[in-house]
Amino acid sequence: MWTQITVDEELGLVYLPVESPSSDYYGGKRPGNNLYGESLVAVDLKTGQRKWHFQLVHHPIWDHDISSAPILLDVTIDGRMRKLVAQPTKQSFLYVFDRVTGEPIWPIVETAVPPGDVPGEWYAATQPIPSKPPAYGRPGLRIPDDLAVIAWDYADYGTVMIPPMSVILPPWEEVGEAAMELLLRRIAKPEIPPRQVILSCTLVVAGSTQRATH
Asked: What is the reported pTM?
């Protein structure tokens, strides 16, 4: 964890916003959904026993680790008082649960997402997206409406879980104008209409095992 934990003294529960496993942008060496990574975990305050958990991002590769403390709420829903815990995220989604049982208050839909093309990477086929409440911020930008620049990658507006793309660079000694030309040709994608931009790119150097993600 790298953000604050939240404690419900009355229920004797502590809510742990667990962050991404290393490395934040590449998971080829940790295939699978990576249980408890980017998850909200409820633990008994006295015994340390896990009571429930919910993973917000499967196989994290976007640095979407939970950045805010869970929020405790007592709210009337359909005439019934409910004890809730709401988890804000970098994606502008608010995940809302019964803080005793971990049951989602509104459906959280396992939504199909596209795979990427980074060599050696493992990709989750779906991601859990809340049906309510609506995102409290836009999860992306439109080009050229919002930005008049070349983007690293594109996706249909409203889609967040687009994996980082890969770009094959020449050996280090050849990186220069040729590499820049290759990047621009790979990135520009003139056949694709203006869409959301995901500012993420994994660079793979030819003849090397090194990777860099931006």
From this structure: 0.71
